[in-house]
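re: that chain from earlier
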Amino acid sequence: MSTSTYKVSGMTCSGCAGKVKTEISKVAGVSSVDVELATGQVTVTSDGPLDDAEIRDVVEEVGYEVVAG
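^ sequence. v structure.
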């Protein structure tokens, strides 16, 4: 198991968080996604290491942005 955490900007409501969670959940190997709307923190648990660029692309496709730190 591997866990990665991302900071996502632009999420303003539970619908936004749900959209991000749903799309990241579709990435191969992802077993769970936890979105903390208040902080923008997205924690992804997967079977193995994730491709950060793929997660970034998925987030951007639904209209949000992965930001550093």
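The chain has one domain: 2-50.
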